[in-house]
Amino acid sequence: MTSIESITLDVTDPAAAGRFYADAFGLGDQVRLRASEAPTTGFRGFTLSLVVSQPGNANALIDAARDGGATVLKPASKSLWGYGGVVQAPDGTIWKVATSAKKDTEPVAREFGEMVLLVGVEDMAASKQFYVERGLTVAKSFGRKYCEFTTPSSAVKLALYGRKALAKDAGVPADGTGSHRIAIGSQAGPFTDPDGFAWEGPAGS
Questions:
Q1: How much is the pLDDT for 203?
Q2: Per-residue pLDDT averaged across 162-185, rounded?
Q3: With CB atoms counted within 10 Å of each terminal CB, which end of the chain scores lower, N or C?
Q4: Residue 204: inside a domain, yes or no?
C-alpha cells in the first residue's frame, strides 16, 4: 500500500525554519527542509494540519507558533466540528491545529497526534482517480468536496480538498502562482499530480 515517507518544504532559510518547527511544534524528522528561492505568490495550494486531542493542546501549539514569529490567520475558536485555529509559519507554510474535542479532559501538553497534508485540487474526481491509479486506497470520500486516503504506515496522512474551500478554511484568498514549495516522498514516486504537486522517490533513491 502506498504511503507518504516524507514531506519536504522548500524554504529560504532551512536553519531558521528548523528552529521554528522544533520550538513551536516539536517537529523532528516528520518534515524535512531544503533551501530554495523558487518564486511563489499567494496561496500555495496546500495546508498541513496537526490533529490534537483537546483544545488546550491546540492553544499551546498555536501560541508557541505565534511566539516564534508565525502569523495567526484564524484565531483558535470553537466550531460545529470542534476547536482549532490556523497560522502561517515564517517560511510561508500554512498550518492548521485542530481537535474534534470540545473541552480538555487531561493536562495540557504541547503535542499532536497526527499530521495531515491537505492538497487543494481543481477537479476532485480526476485527482482522486489519479492517486488511486498510483496505489492509494480511499478511506473517506464526500463527493467532489473531500477525499482522504488510507496510509497506515505513514507519518503523514493525505487528503484532497477543493482548492477554493481549502483556502477559505485557511483564511486566505484562493489565488496563487508559482512553486508549491513542497515535495512528497514515497515509494510511489516520482510523478507530478494533476495540480502540479511533485512526488519524489524515497530519500537516497
A1: 61
A2: 96
A3: C
A4: no
Tell me how crowded residue 193 is: count the other CB atoms within 10 A of its CB: 17
Q: Can you give the length of the chain in residues?
A: 205
Strand order in the sheet with 191-192: 31-35, 6-11, 182-185, 198-200, 191-192
For residue 116, give the CATH number of its domain. Answer: 3.10.180.10
- CA–centroid distance for 151 within its chain: 15
Contact 57, 109 (CB under 8 A): yes
Does the pLDDT of residue 181 top 60, yes or no?
A: yes
Give a yes or no: residue 205 inside a domain: no
pTM, rounded to two decimals? 0.94
Please tell me the total count of domains within the chain.
Answer: 1
Tell me: pLDDT of 34 over 80. Answer: yes
pLDDT digits (tens, 9 = 90+) for 57-88: 999 999 999 999 999 999 999 988 899 999 99
What is the domain range of residue 181?
6-199
Residue 140 lies in a domain: yes
Residue 199 gets which letter from DSSP?
Answer: E
**Does residue 202 carry a pLDDT above 60?**
yes
Is the separation of the CB atoms in 126 and 194 below 8 Å?
Answer: yes
d(CA 115, CA 130): 22
Which amino acid is it at 21? Y
Instruction: Give the whole-angstrom CA distance, residue 170 versus residue 95.
Output: 8
User: 102 in helix, strand or coil?
Assistant: coil
